[in-house]
Amino acid sequence: MKTLATKTMILILGLVCTSAVNVPTFAQSKSSVWDGVYSEEQAKRGVTVYQEACAACHGVDLRGDSNSPSLIGVSFMFLWEDRSLGELLTKIQTEMPPANPDSLPNESYVDILAYVMQVNSFPAGEDELVPGKYHQILITGKP
Ligand code: HEC
Q1: Assigned domain for 134 exists
Q2: Is the CB of 139 inside a 6 Å radius of any atom of ligand 1?
Q3: Which ranges constitute the DSSP H helices of 35-105?
Q4: Atom 3 of ligand 1, nearest CA residue
Q5: 17-40: per-residue pLDDT in tens?
């Protein structure tokens, strides 16, 4: 004969399982770099900071040199496709410039990111790229 405790356990388990099934599956609203996620103005600010802090190694045209990787085109996409802007920003902010990472204001890193996107021909939009959204924005090939 089943004890009350066992019956209660079965009841609870039943409830847990039912509720687990009913948990709504959130379709995360992912966007991509093709959705106009930064502004022209922001990219313009990024040019200045980029030229000062990054161009010595990655080149004025972002194509890099024999020591520093290109930040545009096929080789860039090979590494960054299907990763998020957040990941790219973290990489830049925590590792660049190599001798002095995280040495620029947060905002300047985001401006540089906007500039890098512009040079990669990702379209600008109305709004600036703002914190909290980067991780939902994927770097993808042209849709
Ligand atoms: C002293 C030279 C130097 C400077 C200055 C420099 N970088 Fe770099 N950067 C490198 C080297 C070398 C690598 C490759 C090694 C690595 O990934 O850590 C690299 C890697 C990167 C990567 C990863 C590229 C990839 O596809 O793997 C990004 C993005 C980047 N740099 C952006 C920047 C930005 C933005 C700035 C300016 C804030 C900057 N770098 C300043 C030398 C430099």
Answers
A1: yes
A2: no
A3: 40-53, 55-58, 73-80, 85-95
A4: 57
A5: 555 544 444 445 679 999 999 999
CA of 52 to the centre of ligand 1 (A): 13
Looking at the domain assignment, is residue 76 inside a domain?
Answer: yes
Q: How far apart are the first and last CA of the chain?
A: 63
Range of the domain at 75: 31-138
Phi/psi zone of residue 84: left (φ > 0), alpha (ψ -120 to 50 degrees), beta? beta
Q: In this structure, what CATH number is given to the domain that contains residue 119?
A: 1.10.760.10
Name residue 137's beta-bridge partners. 31
Q: What percent of the chain has pLDDT over 70?
A: 80
Structure tokens at 107: 């905002």
Total tally of structural domains belonging to the chain: 1
Ligand 1 contact, 105 CB (< 6 A) = no
Indicate the pTM of the whole model. 0.83
Q: Are 121 and 137 in contact (CB under 8 A)?
A: no
